[in-house]
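Minutes, project check-in
Item: structure for the 291-residue chain
Input as provided by the requester:
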Amino acid sequence: MRELDLRYVKAHLPHRPDNAHKGTMGSLCSITGSYGFSGAAVLSAKAALRSGVGLLFQIIPEAIYPVYAASVYESVCVPVSGSALGTVSPADLDAIQNTVDRASAVLIGCGMGNTPATAAVLRAVISRSRVPVIIDADGINALSLHKDILDAAHPPLILTPHIKEFSRLTGLSVSEILSDQQGAAEQFIKDHPDLVLVLKSHRTVIATKAETCLNTAGNSGMAKGGSGDVLAGIIASLTAQGANPADAAAIGVHIHALAGDLAAQRFSKTAMLPSDIIACLPDIYRRIEAL
């Protein structure tokens, strides 16, 4: 198993040439957030932007558009009518598909809600996309109820479950997973060899058919709702910029963890917030660039 470090991150970070412009640094379509969970969309978007993506297209239900637009200035908003519950719905698929077609990666799931409507959107995005799709949170919960969606997938998929979500997805108990996290991750990849799995825990495991990586950075201050949204945004941003999905997952996990360690130093493990992780990202990228 490979243990991640900063030099590995440096070697696999997408190149940013001096003559870059927004059109050459990737475009991310983000399908996140719902009524009551606007923060998930905001956190994932800010993390993606802080991680260098050139353009962020945000599919956002009209129910939370004012909150999101007042919080994230740098994204291109694509408001959709959504469902009565304030989630995206199949009626929005034309706008979603038009946006996916403009993107170099797609992020779906953070705070999206787990309803029949959102599951239908997830199915359509996975089946129609021709670029990598990063699936987090409610996207994974939907997969656990509709596992056939994985079999229909064409693009590379990155799944980012925490232990409980992975339990729902696999049928393994939490204790079974924790007793052999690496083994559980590697068995899942044997069954789904075209996926990238980011199994989040105290020590996150990133598994692909080529290798397994272990992240040993990070701290208990990151154990707060929203930290996973930040990670999903970082990984999606790096993927959109052209990083191989396996590399984007591994280096994204380590960057996220290092920023979390810096946030703990500045604010304490008790008081730090997921938004503080985002605030610490510039210092981590400066460290990488200085190597």
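Outcome recorded: Strands lie at 2-3, 27-31, 55-61, 76-80, 105-108, 133-135, 157-159, 195-199, 205-207, 212-214.
No further action items on this chain.
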